[in-house]
Write a structure and sequence with these properties.
The protein is an alpha+beta fold. It has helices at 3-17, 32-66, 76-92, 107-114, 116-132, 157-173, 203-219, and strands at residues 97-104, 139-144, 147-153, 189-196, 225-227. The radius of gyration is 27 Å and the shape is elongated.
Length: 228
């Protein structure tokens, strides 16, 4: 009668010490041992609440560290780390991974004529359009300023070109406020893209090739998507 509740108390405290904060010590002896078990159960509940709050905060902080505050897309830090992972995977398993680098056409002109608040709203909407025109397995990122990146795992250059054109067309066809003031009469983006391993197996080289194509497309009239 005495040893059994003590064993329950000892086992229960061991469970809590190991992190099983949902464990309840079940002792009904109507004495100090039952009171001690009750206090341990209360302690476990409070520790569980604090642990869950801490885990929520940690998840929020982790998300903030890889997300762009304005658009909600992944940020440049995430892009660099994720793209390196996808390159390694593509090389190891003889797959493709493509990236798309896109730049808003005449974004400074839009900002200067309509104000920074409208410019921020424009970037957020463009980010949403990009996200709505890629797969759930792809990754849309704000690379900086008015530049965006998209990671397309298991996607060759021909498939990437289809995605690029879909995004480009969706942005051009969207009805943005004040777009009639833009030099092209629309809000548009210009894109360059590259594919691993066909174009390179190095991240910086892939970015450079995509960037070169982007500026080639800019020189040739903007609102285009070029891939190697």
């Amino acid at each position: 009668m005495v040893i059994r509740p003590i064993k329950k108390l000892t086992f229960g405290t061991g469970q809590i010490a190991e992190g099983n904060l949902r464990y309840k010590i079940d002792v009904h002896t109507a004495d100090e041992i039952q009171e001690c078990a009750r206090e341990f159960n209360i302690m476990g509940e409070r520790l569980l609440e604090r642990t869950e709050r801490l885990e929520t905060v940690m998840r929020e902080l982790e998300e903030l560290s890889v997300k762009d505050g304005l658009t909600g897309l992944f940020n440049r830090r995430f892009f660099n780390n994720k793209m390196k992972e996808e390159i390694k995977r593509a090389v190891r398993y003889h797959k493709h991974v493509s990236l798309l680098l896109m730049d808003m056409d005449d974004f400074k002109h839009y900002n200067d004529h309509n104000g920074h608040l409208q410019g921020d709203s424009l970037l957020k909407t463009v980010g949403e359009i990009i996200g709505n025109n890629i797969r759930v397995t792809d990754f849309a990122c704000r690379y900086g300023g008015e530049e965006f990146m998209v990671i397309l795992p298991e996607t060759d250059s021909q498939e990437a070109e289809i995605v690029a054109e879909r995004i480009r067309r969706a942005i051009q066809e969207h009805a943005f406020p004040y777009e009639e003031t833009q030099p092209l009469g629309d809000v548009t983006v210009t894109m360059g893209g590259a594919t691993c391993p066909d174009d390179s197996e190095e991240l910086n080289e892939l970015i450079k090739k995509a960037d070169d194509l982007l500026y080639k497309a800019k020189r040739e009239g903007k609102n285009k998507a070029y891939l190697f």
